[in-house]
């Protein structure tokens, strides 16, 4: 052992001598920064994030993968870099800007978290739920599911902003607590098994979503975020459709939220709500490019009535409809609804619904709906028509329906969301669209859009 020690000691002495000699005679010229993962060259994306987040708000947006930023036990993936800027543009436009407009230019500079961490995938939990976002101590928000984000998909944008507004509400509540009496409104309805309840069922007990049942803290954040991202029209429709009891409970919670924002932050909540709705509307693509399979809307329908405030037909079209209705009555039918079903490519099927006694019939006729470079659209009859029962039914009603059919076939149109479209509903289920005559904007067909 002693011999070995001596040999090793001698080797160390010789090695040390050589190293000292090397230091005296040579200079290493290696760039070791390439081996340091913390040294990263800025890209155009980094420059954009700095200009829109770091410089004005002191918010770092971290999108490069760092496993230690989140739960190491979860299987997560990085965000696609191509989706980072679109995501953060939406966050800026639909979260930051509305708060600045209603809370003042400095509100977000003072109250925002100082870091966003972006994750491409959802975070799956052991109980079968999915975490879409988290807020940590008012300093950091983690956003998941970035790789599913699409600016042209308004429901997708709306859900992302639901997460942001929910998490930011937690941050505001950490700084100034809400009235604890809020928890008493539905105090017996909170449960750790909220995920076993549907949102539809939760609403019948006075909770705006099933997750609101998790705790009063989550309830307050859900009330705030749903009211902001659904907008006044959609939120009111949800509440007004409920029975008197749960409707009153949600209105009571709404008032706590409105009062909190005014007393704690001097923000008019309904003004903030309108700002968020307008920002969401601005992300909707033009309606004339949103019709058809694989796009946004596949249906446009109306049962024309003079008293319908949201879908009031123009005088010219209503006259055509009433003329057709009278002739259909004479023929022994009751005319109820017209509908356009938008298919693949330029296909648009006009479906006329009518009844005879207790039987309902559909009569179909197919058109090519084309739009030129100036945005003017035209229905051109497809010849020959397909065969089948609904197409045969059209031959039965073609003559009494001539006034309506001629209005459609003999005019060109500008397609747009209707002037009566409620704020914050463009690109969503139930939005209101209109086909305005290109030669007379006071003449139009108007209807409800659906997916």
Write the layout of secondary structure elements.
Elements (H helix, E strand, L loop, with lengths): L1 H24 L18 H14 L2 E3 L18 H23 L3 H5 L3 E4 L4 E2 L5 E2 L1 E4 L3 E4 L10 H22 L23 H5 L12 H25 L3 H22 L3 H13 L17 E4 L12 H16 L3 E9 L4 E10 L2 E13 L4 E6 L7 H9 L4 H8 L2 E6 L14 E6 L2 E11 L1
Parallel strand pairs: 1-2, 2-6
Antiparallel strand pairs: 3-4, 5-6, 7-8, 7-14, 8-9, 9-10, 10-11, 11-12, 12-13, 13-14
Helix pairs in contact: 2-3, 3-5, 3-9, 5-7, 7-8, 7-9, 10-12
Quickly give the CATH architecture of the largest domain: 3-Layer(aba) Sandwich
The count of domains is: 2
What spatial form do the alpha-carbon principal axes imply? globular
What is the CA–CA distance across the termini? 84 Å
- Compute the CA-based radius of gyration: 31 Å
**How are helices and strands ordered from N to C?**
HHEHHEEEEEHHHHHEHEEEEHHEEE
Q: In the CATH scheme, what's the topology name of the largest domain?
A: Collagenase (Catalytic Domain)
* Number of helical segments with 4 or more residues: 12
Low-confidence parts lasting 5 or more residues at pLDDT below 50? 1-22, 31-35
Estimate the helix proportion, in percent: 40-55%
From the helix content, strand content and strand pairing, which structural class follows? Answer: alpha+beta
Strand content: 15-25%
Overall pLDDT level = 91
Top CATH class of the largest domain: Alpha Beta
């Amino acid at each position: 052992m002693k011999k070995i020690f001596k040999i090793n000691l001698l080797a160390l002495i010789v090695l040390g001598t050589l190293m000292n000699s090397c230091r005296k005679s040579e200079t290493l010229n290696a760039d070791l920064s390439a081996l340091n993962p913390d040294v990263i060259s800025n890209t155009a994306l980094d420059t954009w994030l700095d200009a829109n987040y770091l410089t004005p708000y002191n918010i770092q947006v971290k999108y490069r993968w760092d496993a230690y930023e989140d739960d190491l036990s979860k299987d997560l993936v990085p965000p696609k870099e191509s989706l980072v800027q679109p995501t953060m543009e939406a966050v800026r436009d639909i979260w930051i800007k509305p708060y600045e407009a209603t809370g003042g230019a400095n509100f977000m500079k003072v109250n925002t978290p100082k870091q966003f961490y972006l994750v491409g995938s959802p975070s799956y939990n052991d109980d079968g739920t999915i975490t879409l976002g988290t807020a940590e101590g008012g300093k950091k928000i983690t956003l998941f599911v970035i790789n599913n984000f699409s600016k042209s998909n308004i429901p997708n944008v709306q859900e992302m902003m639901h997460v942001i507004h929910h998490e930011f509400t937690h941050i505001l509540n950490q700084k100034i607590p809400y009235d604890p009496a809020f928890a008493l409104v539905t105090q017996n309805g909170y449960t750790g098994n909220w995920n076993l309840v549907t949102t539809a069922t939760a609403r019948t007990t006075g909770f705006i979503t099933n997750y609101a049942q998790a705790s009063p803290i989550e309830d307050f954040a859900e009330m705030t975020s749903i009211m902001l991202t659904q907008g006044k029209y959609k939120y009111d429709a949800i509440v007004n459709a409920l029975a008197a009891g749960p409707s009153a409970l949600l209105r009571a919670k709404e008032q706590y939220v409105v009062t909190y924002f005014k007393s704690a932050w001097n923000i008019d909540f309904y003004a903030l709500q309108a700002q968020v709705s307008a920002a969401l509307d601005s992300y909707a693509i033009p309606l004339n490019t949103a019709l058809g399979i694989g796009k946004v809307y596949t249906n446009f329908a109306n049962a024309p009535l003079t008293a319908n405030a949201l879908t009031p037909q123009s005088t010219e079209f209503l006259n055509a409809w009433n003329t057709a209705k009278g002739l259909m009555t004479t023929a022994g039918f009751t005319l109820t609804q017209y509908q356009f079903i938008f298919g693949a490519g330029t296909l648009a099927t006009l479906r006329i619904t009518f009844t005879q006694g207790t039987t309902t019939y559909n009569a179909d006729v197919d058109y090519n709906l084309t739009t030129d470079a100036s945005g003017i659209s035209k229905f051109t009859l497809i010849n020959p028509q397909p065969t089948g029962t609904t197409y045969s039914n059209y031959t039965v009603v073609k003559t009494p329906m001539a006034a309506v059919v001629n209005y459609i076939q003999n005019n060109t149109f500008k397609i747009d969301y209707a002037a009566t479209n409620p704020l914050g509903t463009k690109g969503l289920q139930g939005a209101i669209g209109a086909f305005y005559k290109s030669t007379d904007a006071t003449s139009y067909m108007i209807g409800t859009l659906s997916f």
